[in-house]
Design goal:
Heat Shock Protein 90, alpha+beta, about 20% strand, two-stranded antiparallel ribbon
């Protein structure tokens, strides 16, 4: 705009104002999300993580085919049920799958492979890991992956991983990422099978409301 002759000063100022406004809105949105999570207790229900993950995978089947991604699901035998809010946990799985899909968008020199693995972790935890064959994690980005509004993508607000970590920590678990030896990255979370472990992390044994509609409203508020 400013390089035009004559310079479009009014247009440039408008762009600056929109950028500032969008930044303020994003900051306010994250503040409200954090407040929401801090006030609401997590619903402590028995969740079959394999079944929950399968439901999310089925929702993405068409998109996976469109992007030429081959997804494989591996599950251990006799897995215990996890404890938590099914909808929130499915939101995390969805975020991790979408993140893996986006990481493989520009991959054309090798097959696009995704592995979802669910197994027991440390006795009283269940772990779900999503491995992709994408570009991997750049060293300079490793410490910022879960920061709110950090993104290397052209589109999106960069809150998916941050919100996912918040959800998992509220379930008494942890979410982390590692680079693969050859290609891509693996994002994993581990959550308790015992309700008392989650209740201790949550600070309350009371059942909370599901957050999906609340989060959608916060994101869509002007």
């Amino acid at each position: 705009m400013l390089s035009a002759q004559p310079p479009n000063v009014e247009g440039a100022l408008g762009t600056v104002k929109r950028t500032i406004r969008d930044g303020q809105r994003a900051s306010e949105m994250m503040t409200r999300l954090r407040a929401l999570f801090s006030k609401r207790a997590v619903t402590a229900d028995a969740v079959d993580l394999v079944e929950a993950a399968n439901d999310v995978i089925e929702l993405l089947r068409a998109e996976l085919r469109k992007k030429r991604i081959v997804l494989r699901l591996e599950t251990a035998d006799n897995l215990p049920t996890a404890i938590g809010d099914r909808v929130q946990l499915q939101q995390v799985v969805l975020n991790l799958l979408l993140n893996a899909m986006e990481a493989m968008n520009g991959i054309d020199d090798r097959s696009r492979q995704m592995l979802v693995k669910i197994e027991r972790d440390d006795g009283d935890h269940v772990r779900l890991a999503v491995t992709d064959s994408g570009e991997g994690i750049a060293p300079q980005h490793a410490d910022r992956l879960f920061d709110a509004f950090f993104t290397t993508k052209r589109e999106g607000l960069g809150i998916g991983l941050s919100v996912s970590r918040c959800i998992i920590e509220r379930h008494g678990g942890r979410l982390w990422a590692t680079s693969n030896e050859r290609f891509g990255a693996t994002f994993s979370f581990s959550i308790p099978c015992r309700a008392e472990r989650m209740a201790a992390a949550d600070g309350s044994a009371d059942k909370g409301l599901q957050l999906r509609s609340d989060i959608q409203q916060i994101v869509s508020d002007p």
